[in-house]
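Q: I have 246 residues here and want to know how they pack in 3D. Can you give me a structure?
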Amino acid sequence: MTKIGKGQVVLVTGGTSGIGLALVEALHIRGARVWFCARNPQAVAALQSRLPAVKGYVCDVTVTSALSRLATEIGTSEGRLDVLVANAGALLELDFNEAPLDDNLLRADIDLNLTAAVLTVNIFMPLLKQSMKPHIVVMGSGFGWSPTARAPLYSATKAGIRAFVKALRAQLQPSGFHVMEVVPPVVDTPAVAHKSGPKLPPSELSRATLDGLDRRLPTVFAGQTRFIPFLLRLAPAALERRTLRG
């Protein structure tokens, strides 16, 4: 088992808060050459100041030209990319009882939680092909495996992520790529501060993700999502009733 870390070039999208921030910090500790991006210039500058060895970049991952500029920057500086972590995303609770909802809001939700991951993989494939052992990590969700009524569109985008990663893995595996989906439960981030109930610390999800990379796992389940494969086999209706209420 080869540990991900020292000397490897890694990009983490959505790297200034929550899961992304925990991954940036953990990879930095492991000695990786970490790049991260986010949309907020102040957040990027603050993290860059706190961790001078990592390289921050302001980038909207829903915009192809912005991703292309970042890819050019990494390519010029590093010549390759060993690990891509397509992490950027956000859970937006939408109630279609209030429809018609703003279609710009709907499109933005799809763009951030599904389209951005596809665009990111597409743009960075040439740099990943320069790596001896390329890894692609895409952040999914337990709600992509069993949906929640409070966020139907988010559930749909994460189900799309699940299908995309599964098909991408089959397509790229003969070329030596490791493609992995991370399936988090509710993680303790500012976005869910208003929610009660169990929340997984971002540091724990980061540890599970890096362990999955080290072991080249196809899927990483963490916290409560560890029970999903078992329940999908033995009690899928019970699982769906539970998550729909979530």
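Q: Anything worth noting?
A: The chain has one domain: 9-245. The beta strands are 9-13, 33-38, 55-58, 83-86, 135-139, 178-183, 219-221.
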